[in-house]
């Protein structure tokens, strides 16, 4: 660095056990490539864990940190001030607690330091008390569970969100999009486009881009009337609408609605709607500690017994048994085969 060059911006990445490696890597690459583009170190970063010990990612690979959270907090690392703190989480973030990290996040949020959360980190940020009345996003697998658990947080289904000094993203390669947006004003459009090309990204996605595939791609049909009905169903899972009301909202007769669902999806609209609600229930059941009766209510069922009966018919085991099987898989670790957010 020349004498006239400004000091490098300092990033600290806090790796929580079972963090998602692809999201972490995608967050660091824009910083590395920005340094390469300008031919000097404009960004510097360190990785820490809460206790300073090696940490395993959700895929089983182990990362050796540069130090502990205490080292960072007390200025015992190579830089004594953090410009941006990035929290990296993955599976089982719901069960992770650390009082030191929570207190540090509250301190940084209070003094205006930039904080970023990738993948499922919004869960820990919310539990630490820094997302109340703020917008954020989280990986789509945890979206509904998060909304139930933290009603005072405005969670959005976007790739990434920015609310003041807090940036959050859904994980996976969305970390790249968030970081490019985060540093764009500092490095300029030309450098941002060059970094995107180096990463073989055909365009810089905005925060309003979808996390999931469009509805027509997910469902596998292109009939606009059918898609409109499914969208109405997906927006009304906790308080299901009658088929007559869905028909009224989409301007179709009940007979026409029945025919479309059976012809294009091989199911009645009532069966399709029920399966959507059971899918929501399964997400809440496996990804939260909500009581089963509360899961039933949040998924539009008036009784736990009716919910359990429908659940067993679709998934082959009771809600209690499914939750217990999921807990057993979590305890088995990365080789247990549990699906996890990217």
Automatic annotation (TrEMBL):
A GO MF label: sequence-specific DNA binding
UniProt KW keywords: DNA-binding, Transcription, Transcription regulation
PROSITE patterns linked: HTH_ARAC_FAMILY_1, HTH_ARAC_FAMILY_2
Keyword Protein biosynthesis appears in the UniProt entry: no
Highest rank taxon of the organism: Bacteria
One Pfam family cited in the UniProt record for this chain: HTH_18
Spans annotated as Disordered: 319-342
Domain HTH araC/xylS-type intervals: 227-325
PANTHER family according to UniProt: ARAC-FAMILY TRANSCRIPTIONAL REGULATOR, HTH-TYPE TRANSCRIPTIONAL REGULATOR RV1931C
Name of the protein in its database record: AraC family transcriptional regulator
Species name: Rhodobium orientis
């Amino acid at each position: 660095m020349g004498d006239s060059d400004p000091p490098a911006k300092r990033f600290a990445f806090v790796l929580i056990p079972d963090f998602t490696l692809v999201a972490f890597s995608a967050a660091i690459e824009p910083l590395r490539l920005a340094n390469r583009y300008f031919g000097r170190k404009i960004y510097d970063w360190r990785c820490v864990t809460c206790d300073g010990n090696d940490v395993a990612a959700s895929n089983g690979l182990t990362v050796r940190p540069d130090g502990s959270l205490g080292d960072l907090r007390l200025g015992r690392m190579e830089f004594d001030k953090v410009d941006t703190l990035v929290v990296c989480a993955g599976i089982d973030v719901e069960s992770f607690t650390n009082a030191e990290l929570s207190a540090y996040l509250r301190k940084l949020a209070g003094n205006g330091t930039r904080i970023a959360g990738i993948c499922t980190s919004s869960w820990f940020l919310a539990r630490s008390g820094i997302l109340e009345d703020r917008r954020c996003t989280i990986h789509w697998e945890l979206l509904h569970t998060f909304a139930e658990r933290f009603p005072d947080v405005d969670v959005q289904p976007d790739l990434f969100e920015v609310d003041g000094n807090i940036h959050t993203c859904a994980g996976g390669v969305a970390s790249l999009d968030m970081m490019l947006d985060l540093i764009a004003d500092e490095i300029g459009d030309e450098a941002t486009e060059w970094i995107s090309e180096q990463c073989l990204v055909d365009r810089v996605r905005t925060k309003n881009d979808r996390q999931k595939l469009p509805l027509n791609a997910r469902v596998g049909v292109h009939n606009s009337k059918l898609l409109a009905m499914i969208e109405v169903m997906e927006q009304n899972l906790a308080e299901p609408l009658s088929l007559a009301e869905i028909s009224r909202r989409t301007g179709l007769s009940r007979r026409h609605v029945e025919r479309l669902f059976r012809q294009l999806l091989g199911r009645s609209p009532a069966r399709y709607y029920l399966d959507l609600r059971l899918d929501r229930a399964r997400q809440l059941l496996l990804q939260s500690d909500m009581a089963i009766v509360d899961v039933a209510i949040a998924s539009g069922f008036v009784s736990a017994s009716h919910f359990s009966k429908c659940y067993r018919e679709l998934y082959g085991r009771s809600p209690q048994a499914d939750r217990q099987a999921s807990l057993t898989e979590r305890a088995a670790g990365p080789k247990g085969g549990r699906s996890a957010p990217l």
